[in-house]
From TrEMBL:
HAMAP family registered for this protein in UniProt: Malate_dehydrog_2
Family per record: Belongs to the LDH/MDH superfamily. MDH type 2 family.
Protein name: Malate dehydrogenase
Pfam families: Ldh_1_C, Ldh_1_N
Source organism of this protein record: Arsenicicoccus piscis
Domain of life: Bacteria
Record gene name: mdh
């Protein structure tokens, strides 16, 4: 039988982990014929809770689950990993300054970047969900000099899926009619969900909506602030949808995006669309066999230019801040 694919997940005892692990174990990433070994990283105080989650994984008797390793040492957990989903991060707590948050996460993602560099399999792909996702990915990438930069991505697929869902609801069409959605920039409130290149049943989405006021003052803020709206309603942050988007992103990266469509992924910029080289920014990308390509040649009007520039400026600020902290060179 096939060798198991080794999938490392960090923050495995957290909220997103509780949804994500069961999806991966049941075959959502690699299908019913590929066994998966889960390699789960947590901080020491959360290992007991993680043992409980592993008991539940056992109790599902998933045919595709070929074993589970848990631990608190990234050098051990990332050993031989083919895919690493970096979900665990230090949340912002009361009284914490932005700089404190960046340095707490900096410590996590420098260490994990080095451990991936030294121990992961040669075909490793790394997806960062933990916030601030783009900058955490930048820190991990910068601390893993032997891993090609294209192997790192940060999650904007949840924003992408939210944008599809909002547009489908507005036009009262199934989500399957919507293609070519793009999230540009940072996974933050400055992100730019772009309807000018999206299509509804093959026709331009902005034209189909025909309402610039809705686009600017309802659609964009609803998508960008959806995370806060979920916290307000649910009392805790989006977890099942974040796990689902983490699955969608990894699956499409490895298996390929659909024909005549693209996905949003935050990847290292090559300077496309005026995004400074080296920043991890969300772009429209097509994917195939674990590689991605930024979709080229889209016309960017003044409105979109302003929105993209604002989000990219925030990414540059975050990069400068972690540079100042010595987390990247
Ligand atoms: P959570 O707080 O429930 O779980 C996080 C887990 O990470 C905890 O169990 C914690 O012990 C663990 N952790 C902390 N430091 C770690 C380390 N150094 N190594 C391994 N594990 C570590 O949080 P939740 O809700 O699961 O969210 C996880 C992250 O995902 C957060 O940063 C959140 O902001 C982010 N997020 C990102 C989204 C996106 O679209 N990119 C969407 C939703 C959440």
């Amino acid at each position: 039988s096939a060798q198991p694919v080794k999938v490392a997940v960090t923050g495995a005892a957290g909220q997103i982990g509780y949804s994500l692990l069961f999806r991966i174990a049941s075959g959502a990433l690699f299908g019913p014929d590929t066994p998966v070994q889960l390699r789960l990283l947590e901080i020491t105080p959360a290992l007991k809770a993680l043992e409980g989650v592993v008991m539940e994984l056992d109790d599902c008797a998933f045919p595709t689950l070929a074993g589970v390793e848990i631990g608190d040492d990234p050098n051990v957990i990332f050993d031989g990993a083919n895919l690493a989903l970096l979900v665990g991060a230090r949340p912002r707590t009361k009284g914490m300054e932005r700089g404190d948050l960046l340095s707490a996460n900096g410590a996590i993602f420098t260490g994990q970047g080095k451990a991936l560099n030294d121990h992961a399999a040669d075909d490793i792909r790394i997806g960062v969900t933990g916030n601030p996702a783009n900058t955490n990915a930048l820190i991990a990438m910068s601390n893993a000099p032997d891993i090609p930069k294209e192997r790192f991505s940060a999650l904007t697929r949840l924003d992408h899926n939210r944008a599809i869902s909002q547009l489908a609801a507005k036009l009262q069409v199934p989500v399957t009619e919507i293609t070519k959605m793009t999230i540009w920039g940072n996974h933050s409130a400055t992100q730019y969900p772009d309807l000018f290149h999206a299509e509804v049943s093959g026709k331009n989405a902005a034209e189909a909506v025909g309402d610039q006021d809705w686009l600017e003052n309802t659609f964009i803020p609803t998508v960008a602030k959806r995370g806060a709206a979920i916290i307000e309603a649910r009392g805790s942050s989006s977890a099942a949808s974040a796990a689902s988007a983490t699955i969608d992103a990894a699956r499409d990266w490895l298996n390929g995006s659909a024909k005549d469509d693209w996905v949003s992924m935050a990847v290292v910029s090559d300077g496309s669309y005026g995004v400074p080289e080296g920043l991890i920014s969300s772009f429209p990308v097509t994917t195939k066999n674990g590689d991605w390509e930024i979709v080229q040649g889209l016309d960017i009007d003044d409105f979109s230019r302003g929105k993209i520039d604002a989000s990219v400026a925030e990414l540059a600020e975050e990069r400068d801040a972690v540079k100042e902290l010595g987390l990247i060179s």
